[in-house]
């Protein structure tokens, strides 16, 4: 089976790009992750993840309109490719399989 | 600001494909968060930018920084070989840099030392000296470092900002008994029990809080304790004080020896309680005490000005023009312009001039390296060309030549350390201060060495590296390479810079010397040759009368000897420091002639022989006469005094009267004589308005000796002294020596200035030597052709000289105004100064020119005498 390498942070970014669908660009992705995953994201970490995944082919991007709010610079929108979707699916399957493989007793905690 | 910086940084390292997008994101986030604290947002922006510096996002850099180690090894090898091959240049470069660096660092240490005064106290920032100033018409007139005895205590009680205070008194000298002999101690102060709360010297024995609380207690420094008691424990022992005290003092404590960098040096302390007999103790009648206070750390002294004024009026009377004044203890040594300072203060101006000298020397040394390595660029051109052809990046070549500069600078730095260590004792002698025992373990020295080694590498190495790495491989490998004209231009400007600096230093030295010489040689208005002065022993009040008649017969005895011309008496010997005089700051008028005028009037007490002893000239009127009963309320004045009252006709004030204060009933003193102005102290200050009152038992004796037999006179003096005052040491000085001592600092400054100027010109000449040697060798062929065509050796030298004379001319043109303005500022320091010595300055310029021409001439001559047949045969 072909494997799709995907890091934990990459996965979160990729999922968020999916969530935002047509509105996924640097700032909105950052905000969404911070809101939904409750974690601080630095621009550097985010951008390098985006660029890495674009290189791997999980993402594709296009330029938006130039925008005065952004000092005259265009937004760059990201969308998931079919390849990216497969990577996400695989990652999800692996997790599900692992969940199911855990014996009942191992998770039999009571919270006290 | 921070954002702009971050933007530029980001543009520099960001991959161009990603730049627009990311900077847009950053901008958007920046704008939406602006309403909060702007600085914070900017910093966050910078942090974001820094987080973007990662492999995936940065642009590709040329492999400069990623040079493989094997290449670095190659650079070192080639660099070393080059250094060894060009031994002359290497020696010149390294010696010049090392000399420059060591002088710079040594001067730097001196400057640091001067600036470190009194900063070693734990609360140095909070310590202030309470001084007294006189304010007339809203302006500060006279500033006196001392204050009234109870003033500091009053401030502590009135102002919550004052955390602690101490009152001290500095003795001129005290006589101590040690075994059978008597010792004169000149560094004794009295202090109250709070002293060590402000000045936290280490207390080795005794208790800091109460060792000064009892009367007649004595605290010694460690070395004084050893001097008086050897290895015994001094605590509880007593030392007999002679003279005015004449009673035993008990040693209650021992403290560490004081460091040299304090404005208030002492080696013995007696308790303040021991001073109770003084008239001004706990009284508001005179200000003779150095007092210090410690302010709350949050209080700036400027905030207390109004309060201090109110307190001045409360304690000194509404009418008084005197004000309490606070002066930061750390600033005293270099910045104080107060009279009656406890030490001879340092000179801020001298320190900043030293700084300039240091910088000049360092620049001269760096310029040497730049000039020599760019001039020699031709030698390396082929190497550079080849390296480029094989595939070296420009960045790598820059790295290579910087590495070579590093190598040279490293050797120079090590040599500089050695030089500095070796010359340190001589340097201490030169500056008259002990900065540190060694430099190699002196942290601040090593830090500066490291810093300036790195800076030097960058400054001296960068430009040559740029030039050398910029060669076009095709051009140099074809052999078409010549030194570029812009490079030659830069070299010439740097040579001009070097010579300007040398000229300024040499001329500065000459002028400083000239001024010191002038001051030492100037007619003071009195005779000081073969005139000696000495203090008389002081005694307790009870024995005053007996003592007076003893002194009188002592003087009579002296007068019997043929080698002694005159024996006079005075309160203050001429040639003392600025503070060695009495003064009064009250109002004063000439009765019936003038209004009451404020300001300081200086007061000296003389007997009737003083005039003759120092050959002081009486312009009008008569001398004191002790046989006239009416002569108790008389006074002599000097010309400066009359000038202050705007009186031109000196005869007109004869027999007029002087009155102090506001009260009509105060004593009136009749003016019986007017004396010619004479300088009582350094020529830095002008002659003060002075009153001379009669006193027939003053504290000092002035003896004029016969020049041809003064030795006999001195012998006789010693014998007679022994006979009359066996208890006290005889301590006489020649008045001319006293005056010379006043200029000690200036003379020393001149010497330091001179030494480093000589060094500067040496380093500059060294560089010029190398440069001209190289340039003349380069032009060997040209010289050969010229000779073949009939030029004589002197023709050839003339042609080369023309270039250099231009440079020297420009240097002279630049340096002259600099010398004129710079040295005039320095000369302004002196009330009696020389006019700006144009000729001497020209001579200084001339010296530099001669040095330069000799150096250049020697090198050209070596080439010019070569046989053209031999020099041309390779062409």
Give the structure's gist in a few sentences.
The complex is a heterodimer of chains A (112) and B (875). Chain A has one domain (8-107): Winged helix-like DNA-binding domain superfamily/Winged helix DNA-binding domain (Arc Repressor Mutant, subunit A), CATH 1.10.10.10.
- Calculate the terminal CA-CA distance of chain B, rounded to whole Å: 61 Å
Strand content of chain A: 15-25%
Widest sheet of chain A: strand order?
Answer: 1-2
Structural class of chain A: alpha+beta
The residue ranges of chain B in which pLDDT falls below 50 over 5 or more consecutive positions are none
Summarize the biggest pleated sheet of chain B. Answer: 12 strands, mixed
State mean pLDDT of chain A (0 to 100 scale): 87
**Helix- and strand-based class of chain B?**
alpha+beta
CATH topology of chain A: Arc Repressor Mutant, subunit A
Query: Could you tell me the radius of gyration of chain B in angstroms?
Result: 36 Å
How many beta-strand elements of chain A? 2
First-residue to last-residue Cα separation of chain A: 43 Å
Question: Average pLDDT across residues of chain B?
Answer: 86
Structure description:
The complex is a heterodimer of chains A (112) and B (875). Chain A is built from four helices and two strands, in the order H-H-H-E-E-H. Chain A has helices spanning 8-20, 26-36, 43-56, 82-101, and strands spanning 59-67, 73-80. In chain A, a hairpin with a 5-residue loop joins strand 1 and strand 2 (73-80). Chain B is an alpha+beta fold and 875 residues long. Chain B folds into four domains: 2-51, no CATH class; 84-106 and 348-519 and 744-871, no CATH class; 126-335, no CATH class; 531-739, no CATH class. Chain B is built from 26 helices and 26 strands. In chain B, helix 1 runs parallel beside helix 3 (38-51) and helix 16 (485-521) packs antiparallel against helix 22. Chain B is globular and about 110 Å long. The model of chain B has no long low-confidence stretch (mean pLDDT 86). The interface between A and B is medium-sized, with 21 and 22 residues.
């Amino acid at each position: 089976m072909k494997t799709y390498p995907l890091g934990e942070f990459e996965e979160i970014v990729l999922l968020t790009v999916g969530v935002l669908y047509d509105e996924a660009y640097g700032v909105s992705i950052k905000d969404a992750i911070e809101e939904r995953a409750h974690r601080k994201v630095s621009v550097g970490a985010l951008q390098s993840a985006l660029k890495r995944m674009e290189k791997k082919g999980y993402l594709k991007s296009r330029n938006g309109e130039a925008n005065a709010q952004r000092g005259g610079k265009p937004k760059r929108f990201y969308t998931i490719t079919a390849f990216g979707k497969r990577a996400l699916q695989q990652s999800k399957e692996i997790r599900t399989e692992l969940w199911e493989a855990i014996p009942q007793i191992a998770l039999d905690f009571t919270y006290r | 600001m921070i954002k702009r910086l971050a933007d530029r940084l980001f543009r520099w390292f960001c991959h161009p494909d990603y730049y627009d997008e990311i900077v847009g994101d950053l901008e958007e986030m920046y704008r939406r968060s602006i309403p909060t604290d702007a600085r914070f947002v900017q910093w966050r922006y910078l942090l974001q930018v820094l987080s973007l510096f990662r492999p995936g996002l940065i642009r590709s850099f040329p492999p400069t920084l990623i040079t493989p180690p094997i290449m670095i090894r190659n650079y070192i090898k080639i660099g070393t070989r080059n250094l060894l091959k060009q031994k002359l240049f290497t020696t010149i470069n390294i010696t010049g840099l090392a000399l420059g660096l060591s002088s710079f660092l040594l001067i730097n240490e001196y400057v640091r030392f001067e600036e470190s005064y009194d900063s070693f106290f734990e609360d140095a920032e909070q310590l202030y000296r309470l001084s007294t100033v006189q304010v007339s018409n809203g302006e500060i007139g006279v500033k006196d470092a001392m204050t009234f005895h109870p003033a500091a205590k009053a401030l502590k009680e009135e102002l919550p900002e004052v955390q602690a205070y101490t009152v001290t008194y500095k003795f001129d000298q005290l006589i101590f008994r040690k075994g059978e002999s008597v010792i004169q101690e000149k560094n004794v102060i009295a202090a109250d029990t709070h002293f060590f709360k402000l000045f936290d010297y280490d207390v080795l024995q005794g208790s800091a809080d109460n060792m000064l609380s009892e009367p007649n207690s004595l605290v010694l420094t460690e070395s004084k304790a050893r001097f008086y008691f050897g290895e015994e424990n001094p605590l509880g022992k007593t030392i007999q004080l002679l003279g005015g005290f004449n009673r035993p003092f008990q040693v209650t404590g021992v403290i560490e020896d004081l460091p040299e960098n304090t404005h208030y040096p002492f080696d013995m302390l007696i308790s303040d309680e021991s001073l109770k007999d003084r008239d001004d103790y706990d009284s508001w009648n005179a200000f003779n005490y150095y007092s210090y206070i410690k302010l709350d750390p949050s209080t700036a002294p400027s905030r207390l000005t109004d309060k201090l004024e109110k307190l001045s009026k409360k304690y000194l009377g509404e009418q008084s023009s005197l004000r309490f004044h606070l002066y930061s203890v750390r600033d005293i040594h270099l910045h104080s312009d107060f009279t009656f300072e406890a030490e001879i203060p340092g000179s801020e101006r001298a320190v900043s001039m030293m700084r300039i000298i240091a910088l000049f020397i360092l620049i001269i040394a760096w310029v040497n390296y730049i000039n020599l390595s760019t001039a020699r660029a031709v030698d390396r051109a082929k190497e550079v060309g080849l390296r480029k052809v094989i595939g070296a990046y420009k960045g790598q070549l820059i790295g290579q030549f910087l590495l070579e500069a590093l190598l040279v600078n490293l050797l120079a730095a090590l040599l500089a350390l050695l030089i500095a260590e070796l010359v340190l004792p001589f340097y201490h002698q030169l500056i008259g201060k002990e900065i540190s025992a060694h430099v190699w373990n002196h942290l601040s020295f090593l830090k500066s060495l490291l810093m300036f080694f790195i800076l030097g590498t960058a400054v001296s190495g960068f430009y040559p590296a740029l030039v050398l790495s910029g060669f076009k491989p095709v051009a140099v490998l074809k052999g078409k390479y010549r030194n570029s004209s812009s490079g030659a231009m830069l070299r010439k400007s740097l040579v001009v810079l070097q010579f300007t600096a040398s000229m300024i230093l040499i001329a500065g030295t000459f002028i400083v010397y000239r001024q010191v010489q002038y001051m030492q040689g100037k007619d003071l208005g009195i005779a000081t040759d073969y005139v000696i002065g000495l203090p008389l022993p002081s005694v307790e009040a009870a024995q005053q009368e007996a003592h007076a008649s003893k002194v009188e017969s002592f003087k009579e005895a002296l007068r019997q000897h043929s080698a002694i011309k005159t024996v006079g008496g005075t309160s203050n010997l001429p040639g003392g420091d600025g503070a060695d005089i009495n003064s009064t700051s009250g109002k004063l008028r000439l009765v019936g002639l003038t209004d009451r005028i404020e300001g300081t009037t200086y007061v000296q007490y003389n007997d009737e022989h003083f005039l003759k002893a120092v050959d002081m000239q009486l312009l009008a009127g008569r001398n004191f006469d002790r046989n006239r009963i009416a002569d108790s309320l008389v006074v002599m004045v000097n010309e400066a005094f009359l000038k202050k009252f705007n009186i031109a006709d000196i005869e007109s004030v004869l027999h007029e009267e002087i009155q102090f204060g506001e009260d009509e009933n105060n004593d009136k003193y009749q003016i019986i004589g007017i004396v010619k102005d004479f300088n009582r102290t350094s020529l830095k200050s002008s002659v003060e308005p002075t009153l001379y009152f009669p006193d027939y038992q003053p504290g000092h004796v002035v003896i004029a000796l016969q020049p041809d037999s003064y030795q006999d006179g001195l012998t006789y003096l010693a014998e007679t002294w022994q006979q009359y005052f066996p208890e006290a040491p005889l301590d006489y000085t020649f008045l001319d020596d006293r005056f010379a001592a006043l200029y000690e600092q200036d003379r020393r400054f001149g010497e330091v200035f001179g030494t480093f100027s000589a060094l500067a010109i040496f380093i500059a000449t060294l560089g010029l030597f190398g440069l001209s040697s190289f340039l003349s060798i380069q032009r060997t062929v040209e010289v050969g052709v010229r000779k073949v065509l009939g030029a004589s050796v002197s023709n050839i030298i003339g042609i080369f000289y023309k270039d250099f004379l231009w440079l020297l001319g420009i240097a002279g043109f630049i340096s002259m105004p600099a010398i004129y303005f710079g040295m005039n500022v320095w000369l302004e320091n002196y009330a009696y100064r020389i006019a700006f010595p144009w000729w001497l300055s020209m001579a200084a310029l001339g010296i530099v020119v001669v040095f330069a021409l000799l150096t250049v001439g020697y090198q050209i001559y070596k080439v010019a005498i070569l046989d053209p047949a031999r020099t041309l045969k390779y062409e």
